[in-house]
TrEMBL record:
<protein>
    <recommendedName>
        <fullName>histidine kinase</fullName>
        <ecNumber>2.7.13.3</ecNumber>
    </recommendedName>
</protein>
<keyword id="KW-0418">Kinase</keyword>
<keyword id="KW-1133">Transmembrane helix</keyword>
<feature type="domain" description="HAMP">
    <location>
        <begin position="1"/>
        <end position="33"/>
    </location>
</feature>
<feature type="domain" description="Histidine kinase">
    <location>
        <begin position="41"/>
        <end position="259"/>
    </location>
</feature>
<keyword id="KW-0472">Membrane</keyword>
<keyword id="KW-0812">Transmembrane</keyword>
<keyword id="KW-0808">Transferase</keyword>
<dbReference type="GO" id="GO:0000155">
    <property type="term" value="F:phosphorelay sensor kinase activity"/>
</dbReference>
<keyword id="KW-0597">Phosphoprotein</keyword>
<dbReference type="GO" id="GO:0005886">
    <property type="term" value="C:plasma membrane"/>
</dbReference>
<keyword id="KW-0902">Two-component regulatory system</keyword>
Amino acid sequence: SQRIRVNEGREDEIGRLVKTLNSLLDRLENSFYRQKQFNADVSHELKTPISVIKAQIEEAIDSEKKLTSDQKNILLTIKKQIDQMNQLVSQMLLLAKVDGKNIKPDKEEFDLNVVVDAVIEEMNNLASEKNISIKKEIREGQEFRMKADLSLITQLLLNLIDNALKYSKNSGKIKIILTKLDGFYRLNIIDDGIGIAEEDLDDIFKRFYRVDKSRSREYGGTGLGLSICSWIVKIHGGEINVKSSLKKGSNFEILLPEE
Ligand code: ADP
């Protein structure tokens, strides 16, 4: 982050004013820093209690025979909310990292195609709950070797495919197209879901922005996913863009350099 300073060195009234201004800027910067650190610490401290509660609730749900259906429904509702909280806290932890200074991706070599397959596999349960098919298109025999931060690229794919599922109707179709270009890869995640209105397109990458607050409650989610995606792409020197039309679907396009 850049320090904002006004040149000091004058002994007159303006000089004193400049000193006061600089000391105010120092205090402002410190308070920003403390606020960020506070967010990171709170998120971190919430992780353990949340995972304990989650485990206990899952155990209670599994002891099915002893429960009435009302009790079971209550537990399922609590579980859904805990999962939501868990997602929010994980994303806030990631964002705390984003706000840190000069974060560089921790690069290793892997095949992007293999990672895409693994993420599709992981999302398959969720997809079949809504009877949605996820199909991948690549040119056979091509290699998609790249050097990047594997855990962040996995997170990026999870967020985008999770959104495609969340904002699709039952029996929708999701298509993932992986293309090799000169020195970089293009990834398209295309759904035929609810789509995004033109006037919202610029805002969806902002933190906590959700197109329809009331509707989003029913879909779950935090409004942080896409801001994390755009950060991940940016620190890799890539690009993320979206084309979408209401009620027809969305196409999220990512460009990532090979290394
Ligand atoms: P959320 O956790 O709410 O999904 P995101 O940052 O991932 O947060 O997305 C921001 C908003 O963009 C969402 O609330 C949703 O309104 C819209 N959005 C994202 N992906 C899609 C998609 N594939 N189809 C339609 N709307 C989407």
